[in-house]
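Agenda item 2: oxa(dethia)-CoA complex prediction
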Amino acid sequence: MASAGILGTGSALPKKIITNADLEKMVETSDQWITERTGIRERRQAGPDETTSKLSVQAARKALEMAGLKPQDLDLIICSTISPDMPLPSTAAFIQAELGARSCCAFDLAAACSGFLFGITVAEKFIRTGSSRHVLVIGAELLSRYLDYKDRATCVIFGDGVAAGVLGAVEPPSGILAEELHTEGAYADHLFIPAGGTAKPASRETVEGGEHYIKMRGNELFKVAVRSMEDVSRRVLTQAQVCPEQLSLFIPHQANQRITEAVRERLGVNPEKVYSNISRVGNTSSASIPICLDECVRSGRLKRGDLVLMSAFGAGVTWGAVVMRW
Ligand code: UT7
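Presented output:
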């Protein structure tokens, strides 16, 4: 049976940059605190015309071009997002129409920061069973639309961004070697948006109370994130029979540079093998890993034949890891 691999990647970032100095003017914080506690120096913020679907289409076109494919070649489109254009219909539907893809299956997937790994794992099943030849997986987040720029616990870490991967069959030993995904809903209230859904529909009161903004218990999540990413990374490495020394690259979800460092150290991965762009883009949730992937592919940091480990953690809480030979 053929393996599933990533044939092309692409990313798109909003134009506007929000620096730590900009945030110093909005909330009681400092460049020093943000840099030392998170590793972030700047992040992007989408303008009114930059929607989740529009940026997704830009990223998807680049990924398709790298893969040497046309939109009509796609059999499945998965948009991983918790910041869709609108509650109804799916953002994947807008992407499909704008790309000019045929009426293939297209849907959104909600797994927050672990979303791209959830997406490529689903795509892998469709490819390996032969039901899809080419699958577009997008990680797209405009979390700035849900940020309270008076809440220093959240507005300093999240940024906007989108990235895509086109998956298809590849010859072994290339492709996805091992994957594992988890959700633990007992921690759902650690990172959530209280209002705007069916549990608490949007109203004047919810808006006045700021309940349409992201609420996060960052410190508690920090510890769960480190433990979960370490544990699931070890498990997929064992499953794939790969030891940390064999890895060419480790791409963790860019949640916080201190989380990355803690996971790296626990796994015993050499610092030079860890990719980090958090200082430039912040935490872009489901777009974080594919933006890194795209940067690594385009800069030559990730080459065909390399072994790469990707590991993520996010709201839900969700977590997962994938080992692949590029
Ligand atoms: O994306 C996946 C899901 N999300 C995560 O995994 C996020 C994980 N959590 C984190 O990245 C970190 O917990 C944060 C960056 C969010 C916060 O860093 P922390 O080191 O855990 O800070 P803390 O919440 O324990 O707060 C420490 C102190 C507090 O002051 P006191 O009580 O010690 O006086 C906070 O009020 O730092 C204060 N603080 C800030 N100070 C300046 C919290 N945020 C800020 C800020 N600027 N932006």
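Discussion summary: The mean pLDDT is 97.
Owner for follow-up: CH.
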